Amino acid sequence: MTAPSARPAVVAPTVVALAALALAGPLAVTEAAVPTTTGASTGAGAGASTGATASRVVLRAPQEVAPRTRFAVRGTLRVGSGRRTVTVSERVDGRWRTRARARTTPRGTFRLRLRSGAAEAERELRLRARGGGRLLATSRFVVRVAVPKAATAVTTSWSAPGAALGIPLPVTGLVHAPDAAGRTAVLQAALPSGWFDLTSTVVAPDGSFALAAPTDWLASLSTRVLVPETATSAEGASTTTPYAVTPTWTPPGAAGDWTELGPDLPLRHDPCRVVDYRTNLDGAPSGAAEAVAEAVRQVALATGLRFRHLGPTAALFDGRGPHAAYPSDATLVVGFGTAAQTHAPFGGAGRTIGWGGASDSRRARSAALGDVWRIVEGGAVLRADHPWQPAELLEALTHEIGHAVGLGHASGAEQLMFPVSDGANVVWGAGDLAGLRTAGLQAGCLTAPRRSRADDRPRGVVALP
Ligand SMILES: [Zn+2]
What we know:
The protein has 465 residues and is mainly beta. It has helices spanning 288-303, 390-404, 430-438, and strands at 57-60, 64-65, 70-77, 85-92, 95-103, 109-115, 121-131, 134-145, 153-158, 162-164, 170-176, 184-191, 194-202, 208-212, 220-227, 236-237, 241-246, 267-268, 275-280, 307-312, 332-337, 354-366, 370-383, 446-447, 462-464. The protein folds into three domains: 57-145, Immunoglobulin-like, CATH 2.60.40.730; 153-246, Immunoglobulins (Immunoglobulin-like), CATH 2.60.40.10; 267-464, Collagenase (Catalytic Domain).
């Protein structure tokens, strides 16, 4: 961020310095030849299987059955034509004991009936097909014998479909199951990456529960309450309910007014992990610690990112990286420095008062955004020798941490991500919020990249004033 000026602000070009690191070669994987005397099982319900990838038998068996019942093992043999013999055996004390035998139809289909037995057990079974004195196919599978679990029904009641930021939003409900008391009720959000636990509570003796939907960030989520299974009851879930948290101010400007910091792919923290950060307040103005905490809170309320302050560090986000001095337990460092301490353009008559971005990242995958860079070193550094006023300090910190979570510059002066400070703007605009929404929990968790790639190597610095 640059200080206001009568002249047009000079915005330093984005620095993209690729780290020249040698890459370890990909691990070679050699597949051993698989004997073709065995077939493979496929199909719903078939458990562990053995054999070649060429499917010689399509097998369908239940994964779980109740005690004292009968169950069917069905399938189709895919070796030639004519009637063959299929046998199902069970492994007991290291030996295979025949449990059922049948002839296939001329087209190769078969169906065998087995007894589940009285005891709960994991039954290890094997199907073998023979014809013309030869073993044609074999497939192993497991059938679990277990007493069926009781159903768990969950109902919820929301006090309102949403709330303003910071206003409590109670969710109550009932669990209908024989063992409801003491079970856990989990409020979950449907993120692009799957269900995500927001908060949880213990179910009361009468089956009721009370939760509070998070309203400390600008969420807009579809939710459900999940009660996980127990030894005797199946898991249960409520129907889904949407809720939204709205800002307490009217965000100015256009929702489209935001950009990515990453020049090729979005730069992101994993919103499903706590973002641990450290601060370097050597040479900082008075009130800096409180201002950093408030700026972090502003980024959190717009993103849903959860931040945790781990304490001080001697390191600075210095406009270069990756570097050995960066704390290994944090992915964000916020500090104050001079031109002599950083590579940010803080020298001479320059008007740059802050610098923020990422100095190291790894390839990752976002269900909502596709390929991204996951930030492993990010930060914000503010000019230590600037005559800071409280509002300007908060504005600059919020702006630079906005860069450190992946946002570039906006074009409208009403946005906090506008590159020139007005010394007073400390609320997010509509464009800021739209961008930060994609930088946070709303976009879902990051996962490993789809495959190992030559460009998985660490990235260099991507930072802006
Ligand atoms: Zn900036």
